[in-house]
């Protein structure tokens, strides 16, 4: 009988052992088929070339698994051990519930602005009936927003840690941590949960004045939509891949709606126009007066008409992408996409020429909106290595603008309250 040690060192057995080594990279389809993947993004050509559906790669929504979130989640669970688990109060979603969540999606609604996000609010509330992560996220937004309105709470060193704010942050950490643990195997339900939570996280960070984190949620949510093909994608002149998952939340549409809602930035209750004629301010509630009296009208951008028109056209463009049936129609839409991007570039050039007439913080909000629109449009419809390279560059620019915006908001809050 042969010595087992000799057999273990034989080339034949060594080859067999190598063949059983698991490959951890590659698209989900190739891993399931146990074949080598060429790892092209977002869809591997081995799948596309053989007529298979490429199920994409592991989610890039990994930022919420960072050590800081893990630590926050750990401390949150310890400090909230006595809290009862969140359960839906009722299986009925009322119009009042929808209207309230629609209002909480943006702080601009404090000043009488309507977002037009009723559909997104209804979808989130309906999903919360069966999804505890979405319930945690909604409860966090509700608590932090109410705390903001009643106390005029801010971010940074001057912020006060009230019990309600602490509870709202606990719920936020629980939603983030729970979502992070589910991202390793995202099915249709998990994708819905991730994208709906991402919508709410964007609103939470707006309330908190943390625009760097807000941009992170925007970018990662858009990556999820792209990776899991929420809309048809043109991968070649004659190759249109249909949407891989039906009825996923369109995060990009939500983002544009939040930004597009018109609002005057930091106007005093009584303003004089250039002719010296006074304009009467609209009536606002006592809560709104409290916030305004503390100078916290800092996250309600003055969206200029031209940029608003481009954003409206972008919404129409995204809707047409969702309805695409042929590569020919997709090629025609590419012309519209190019036109929208050209319009954004022209708008930015014009902004640079008149920016001295715009308040610095308002200018920063406008640039943030512009850059977000650009990232949304670049990632829509078609994909190539050139597009991917440009998109990465624009995403980096968005992060830079968001960081600058956050610092300016903190400085503005500090100056108003202490000065």
From TrEMBL:
Record bears the keyword Zinc: yes
PROSITE patterns: ZN2_CY6_FUNGAL_1, ZN2_CY6_FUNGAL_2
Domain Zn(2)-C6 fungal-type: 26-54
GO MF annotations, alphabetized: DNA binding; DNA-binding transcription factor activity, RNA polymerase II-specific; zinc ion binding
Cited CDD domains: GAL4
Matching Gene3D superfamilies: Zn(2)-C6 fungal-type DNA-binding domain
Keyword terms: DNA-binding, Metal-binding, Nucleus, Transcription, Transcription regulation, Zinc
SMART domains: GAL4
Domain of life: Eukaryota
InterPro entries found in the cross-reference section: Transcr_Regulatory_Proteins, Zn2-C6_fun-type_DNA-bd_sf, Zn2Cys6_DnaBD
PANTHER family the UniProt entry points to: ASPERCRYPTIN BIOSYNTHESIS CLUSTER-SPECIFIC TRANSCRIPTION REGULATOR ATNN-RELATED
Protein name, as recorded: Zn(2)-C6 fungal-type domain-containing protein
Organism: Polyplosphaeria fusca
């Amino acid at each position: 009988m042969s010595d087992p040690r000799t057999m273990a060192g034989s080339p034949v057995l060594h080859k067999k052992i190598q063949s059983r080594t698991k490959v951890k990279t590659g698209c989900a389809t190739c891993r399931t088929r146990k074949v080598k993947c060429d790892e092209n993004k977002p869809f591997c050509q081995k799948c596309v070339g053989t007529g298979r559906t490429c199920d994409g790669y592991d989610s890039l929504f990994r930022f919420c698994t960072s050590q800081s979130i893990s630590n926050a989640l750990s401390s949150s669970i310890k400090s909230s051990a006595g809290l009862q688990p969140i359960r839906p109060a009722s299986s009925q979603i009322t119009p009042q519930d929808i209207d309230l969540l629609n209002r909480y999606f943006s702080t601009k609604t404090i000043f009488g602005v309507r977002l037009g996000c009723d559909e997104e609010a209804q979808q989130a509330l309906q999903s919360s009936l069966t999804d505890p992560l979405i319930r945690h996220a909604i409860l966090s937004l509700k608590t932090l927003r109410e705390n903001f309105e009643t106390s005029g709470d801010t971010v940074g060193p001057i912020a006060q840690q009230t019990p309600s704010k602490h509870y709202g942050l606990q719920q936020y950490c629980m939603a983030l941590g729970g979502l992070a643990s589910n991202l390793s195997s995202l099915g249709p339900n998990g994708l819905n949960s991730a994208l709906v939570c991402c919508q709410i996280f964007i609103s939470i960070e707006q309330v908190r004045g943390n625009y760097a984190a807000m941009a992170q949620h925007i970018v990662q949510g858009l990556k999820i939509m792209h990776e899991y093909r929420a809309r048809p994608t043109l991968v070649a002149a004659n190759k249109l891949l249909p949407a891989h998952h039906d009825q996923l939340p369109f995060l990009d549409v939500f983002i544009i709606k939040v930004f597009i809602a018109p609002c005057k930035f930091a106007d005093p209750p009584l303003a004089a126009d250039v002719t010296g004629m006074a304009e009467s301010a609209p009536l606002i509630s006592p809560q709104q007066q409290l916030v305004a009296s503390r100078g916290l009208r800092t996250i309600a951008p003055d969206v200029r008409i031209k940029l608003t028109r481009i954003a409206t056209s972008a919404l129409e463009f995204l809707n047409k992408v969702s309805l695409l049936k042929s590569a020919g129609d997709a090629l025609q839409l590419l012309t519209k996409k190019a036109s929208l991007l050209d319009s954004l570039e022209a708008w930015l050039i014009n902004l640079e020429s008149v920016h001295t007439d715009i308040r610095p913080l308002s200018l920063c909000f406008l640039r943030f909106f512009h850059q977000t629109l650009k990232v949304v449009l670049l990632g829509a419809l078609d994909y190539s290595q050139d597009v991917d390279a440009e998109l990465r560059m624009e995403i980096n620019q968005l992060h830079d603008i968001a960081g600058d915006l956050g610092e300016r908001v903190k400085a503005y809050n500090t100056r108003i309250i202490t000065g």
